[in-house]
Each structure stands twice: as structure tokens, then as C-alpha cells.
Design goal:
The protein has 68 residues and is mainly beta. The chain has one domain (4-64): OB fold (Dihydrolipoamide Acetyltransferase, E2P) (Beta Barrel), CATH 2.40.50. It is built from 1 helix and 5 strands; from the N terminus they run βββββα. The strands form 2 sheets. The protein has a 3-stranded antiparallel beta sheet with strand order 3-4-5, with no helix packed on it. The protein is globular and about 40 Å long. The relative contact order is 0.31.
């Protein structure tokens, strides 16, 4: 069963990510003060994606929303 989570990219685009294709989610901090998460995919393009949401927020929302 697919587990989708809604995220916002650093440029403000709203996207949905299937967590079944994600290898790792780690905290991301830039030198300019931005903090969010870096999503690293197991395969494919893009291989990574930086989003505004925290790692904990992404993982908690996947527990609630599960779509077929």
C-alpha cells in the first residue's frame, strides 16, 4: 500500500512523495538559516529533494494518511 506525504519545496511548490521510494530522510540546514529535510530516494531522478517540513513532521503525517 502506497504511503504518500504532502511536502513543500524550498521554492514553494506543493508536491506529494511516495515514501515507499524513499531511502532516507535527514535534517537539512543551510548556511543562510533555512532548515527543513532532505529526502533521499532509493533510485531514479531526482535523487534528492529538499523540503520545508521537518523529518518528524513527514514521518508523522505518513502514519495518518495512507492511500491505495
Amino acid at each position: 500500500m502506497a504511503s504518500w506525504v504532502k511536502c513543500t519545496t524550498t521554492d514553494g511548490a506543493e508536491i506529494r512523495v511516495n515514501l515507499e521510494h524513499v531511502a532516507m530522510i535527514r535534517s537539512y540546514h543551510s548556511d543562510r538559516g533555512f532548515s527543513g529535510s532532505e529526502i533521499i530516494f532509493a533510485t531514479g531522478t531526482p535523487s534528492t529533494l529538499v523540503v520545508n517540513e521537518s523529518r518528524d513532521t513527514l514521518l508523522k503525517s505518513s502514519e495518518v494518511r495512507r492511500d491505495a
